[in-house]
Amino acid sequence: MKRSLLLLFMLSGFLFSFGEDFNSDMDLLAKEQIKTRFQFDDLPRRYYANILIRLEGYPSEEDSLIFNELVTKLKSVVDEWTVSLCTTMSSNLVVEINNLERKGEMNKIIGSQFNRGEIFKRTVILNLPKEMQFNERKKVIYYYILRSLVVFKNDENKAAKVPGSIFSESRPEQISFHPVDFKIIKKIYSKEVEDQHNNRNSTILSI
């Protein structure tokens, strides 16, 4: 019995250590990706407000499920502000899904509005065929929504590629839901970045 407990304790310690090492590696990878892909004058460009997502067009039941899952994940990593699905015109992230007026257009992010490095509003166009499988729909939605939460540097293609990452791959079908993706969002939307942004704006306004 004692021997079994000792083995269990040793195994638990190994798994805990492995988990710590993995998280540490992901943190370092996320920091490097942020520095080379998203950092403008020491700060990333992002939303500095509640992210209110409004679905327009004809989202399927599967699309709604995927968005609800994604919003839940984003709520767990975004500090200071909230992320939610809404139906009001005050939304600042509009997602047009299978809008008949956009039929045939490529999936893309358009109509970006910025001020002092802050995203004010964006629109994402998604055309998702009915026959598209659930996992493929999920890849397209995750790819374009997460990328809409950040602003890429013009020379970000010089950054080291992370295979399978939403922020490295050029097409959604290439992603593998890499754990670094939400690490990047968590660090970009951290309280530390929020405070740096507020301090910088306060300095600018006082000049």
Question: Topology, pairings included?
Answer:
Blueprint: H1 2-37, E1 39-40, E2 43-44, E3 51-57, H2 61-77, E4 83-85, E5 93-97, E6 108-115, E7 118-126, H3 134-148, H4 180-188, H5 191-206
Parallel strand pairs: 3-4, 3-5, 5-7
Antiparallel strand pairs: 1-2, 6-7
Helix pairs in contact: 1-4, 2-3
Describe the protein's architecture and organization.
The protein has 207 residues and is an alpha/beta fold. The protein has helices at 2-37, 61-77, 134-148, 180-188, 191-206, and strands spanning 39-40, 43-44, 51-57, 83-85, 93-97, 108-115, 118-126. Helix 2 (61-77) crosses helix 3 (134-148). The chain is globular, with a radius of gyration of 20 Å. The model is unreliable at 14-18 (pLDDT under 50).
Oligomeric grouping of the chains: single chain
What profile does the largest beta sheet have?
A: 5 strands, mixed
What structural class results from the helix and strand content?
Answer: alpha/beta
What fraction strand?
15-25%
CA radius of gyration = 20 Å
Summarize this entry quickly.
By secondary structure, the protein is an alpha/beta fold. It has helices spanning about 1-35, 60-75, 135-150, 180-190, 190-205; strands at about 40, 45, 50-55, 85, 95, 110-115, 120-125.
Which tags fit this structure?
7 strands; alpha/beta; two-stranded antiparallel sheet
